[in-house]
Amino acid sequence: MKDTKILEVKNLVKHFTVTAQGASEQKQVVRAVDGVSLDIKEGEILGIVGESGCGKSTLGKTVMRLHDKTSGEVLYRGEDLFGMKRDQMKDISTHMQMIFQDPYSSLNPRKKVSQVIGQPLRIHSVGSSSEQSDRVEALMEEVGLNPKFKRRYPHQFSGGQRQRIGIARALALDPEFIVCDEAVSALDVSVQAQILNLLLDLQSKHQFTYMFISHDLAVVEFISTRILVMYLGRVVEIADKKELVQKHLHPYTKALFEAFPTTDPRSRIGKKRVVMGDVPSPIYPPSGCHFHPRCPFATDKCRMEYPPLKEVSPGHSVACWEFGS
Fold this sequence. Notes:
325 residues, Rossmann fold, 24% strand, alpha/beta
C-alpha cells in the first residue's frame, strides 16, 4: 500500500429536506452526513461500518457525486469533484466506479448482460464494437461468469451471479477507486464469502482502492485494511483493522464488538454489555455527543458538547470526551 492519498473528504455535510406529514406540512432537515472527514490511500480498503441509518451509504453516494453535497469538500487526487464541470466529471468517472447493494434493482431488466456490462464502454466510446464485445467476455470470465451466457437477461441469473455482473460493469473502464455499497448484504452467507474473495482477488491483481461500506462488522473486519465507525452521520472512531479489533475505544465501537457473534462462549463471559435504545432520528439528533443517550459512561459534558475526533495513537482517532478532554 502506498502513502499517496487517492481520496480526501473534508468536513463533508449532506442534509436532505423532507416534508413532515400533517396539517402544517412543515419542512424538516435530515442530517444524513454531518461533518465527515477521512482520507483513503492508494491500494487500501477502508471499511465503513455502523448501524442502519448512520449515513454510511449516503457518504459513499455523495463521494461519487450521486448526491450533491450540502457543504464540505471531496478531493480525488487533489481535484475538487464538486468543482468539476460535466465533461471533467465524465473523464474522472472512468477512474471511480460503484458496486451497488441490490443486484436485482441495479441492473436494467430489459438489457442483456452483454449490454449491461458493455454500457460504460459505449458511453465513453472505448474501442470498436468487436473490441467492446471481447472486453465484455474477458470481464465475465474474470468475475467467474461463463461468457456464453452474455445474451441472457439479469432475471435468468442468481443473486450472486447478478452481483458478479455488477462487479464486471464496475471494472469495464479499468477504474482505480471503487465504492462498494453493502455489496454483499443481499446475498446468502456462502455467496457472500465467494464475492468477498473475488473482490480481494481483484484488488490484489489490479491494485484497486476500495471504500467498502457495510453494517456487518464480520464482513468489514474480513476485507478491510482500516476501519471507520460511523454513528448518526459522524465518525466516532477510525484505526487500522488490527488496532481497532484489539483496542477499540469508543463506547459505541465496544458495543458493536461485544454484539459480534463468536464460536467461543468463554470470550463473552463477564464482558457482554447491551446498548439500550435505538438510534436517534437524524432529524432530531441529541445535543452534545450523539451517542450519549445510549452510553453508560455519559457525563454532563457529553450531553452539552460534541467531542472532537482526536488522534490517541498513530493512525487511531476517536471522538469521545474520555480521550479528547
